[in-house]
Amino acid sequence: MTESSHLLTVKPTKDGSTTLFSKKFDQHYHNPNGAVAESRHVFFETPGVLAALKRQDFITIFETGFGTGMNLLLVLEYLEKTESPPAVIFNSVEAFPISPKTAAELNFGNNTFLNSSKHILSDIFGSLIPGLNQFELSTHLTFNLFAGFFDELFEQNAVSDQADFIFHDPFSPDANPDLWTIEVFKNLASVSKPDTVLSTYCAATSARAAMAAADWYVARAPGAVGKREMTVASRSSDKLANFKRVNEKRLIERLERGDFRY
Ligand SMILES: C[S@@+](CC[C@H](N)C(=O)[O-])C[C@H]1O[C@@H](n2cnc3c(N)ncnc32)[C@H](O)[C@@H]1O
Fold first, then answer.
1. How far is CA 4 from CA 122, 171, 179, 219, in A?
2. Mutation test of ligand 1: which of 4, 31, 63, 96 has the most ligand atoms closer than 8 Å to its C-beta?
3. For residue 10, what is the enclosing H or E element?
């Protein structure tokens, strides 16, 4: 499926950066209160990516839903700012890649680094082939994008790296239910290390229950720009020591009782 069936419009958000609105999913790609602000909080600050960039020699990230590619540019920006940066592998998957033209229409407010790097996104979207695409974006950053559906990526065993961090960033469970199932979180566990931290903007109880049923420990964290909560998860309970845990057992019972639609 191509972008034309996705029906996208570029929308400003309150921190000056743009996002996209998808008519197909009837949803924004990011929080209208601030696209860049939300991504920094949910995917980089809360799960500890910023701390890991300073501490580790090697970091692997898996992202569910490449969308505009903003998280990739943020990784580049953080690497640029880090003294002696680690080598990063950024793996992502996208079933409905945007066009290079739409990518060129995005802007990142007053962030000069992101604005001056956004041509990278147009170049990526302009050269994609179905399946696995690999880009060496800098001496420190390798980017692998699977152009296709999440399920296909796992059916084809297309990712072999074990992630340190998972950016789970589909549309919400009501709009994009296929990416919030127990099976999805089991697949994510299969590309994880024992202490991987998964983070998502989503605070839905049904999503947390699916994570718990896939053997993730689950916790709540303060949400970004106007949202009360987000979710972090790990297969190591130690990694969640600084967060307020949910009762995983109780959530699994509710899931088995059919309390949730997804
Ligand atoms: C909320 S957006 C991602 C935002 C993105 N991380 C960014 O920073 O722009 C969700 C993305 O997931 C993609 N998507 C939805 N269902 C998918 C599936 N089954 N497999 C792969 N990608 C999917 C959508 O096309 C969309 O680009």
1. 16, 18, 22, 38
2. 96
3. strand 8-12
pLDDT in tens, 97-106: 999 999 999 9
Phi and psi at residue 154, in whole multiples of 5°? -80, -35
Mean pLDDT of the 109-126 span: 94
Find out whether the beta carbon of 176 lies less than 6 Å from any atom of ligand 1.
Answer: yes
Characterize 14-24 residue by residue with b for buried, 16 or more Cβ atoms within 10 angstroms of its Cβ, and e for exposed: ebebbbbebee
Q: Which residues are bridge partners to 230 per DSSP?
A: 221
Alpha helices in 82-197, H assignment, sequence order: 100-105, 112-117, 119-127, 150-155, 182-190
Domains in the chain (CATH in brackets) are: 35-256 (3.40.50.150)
Q: Tell me the whole-structure pTM to 2 decimals.
A: 0.96
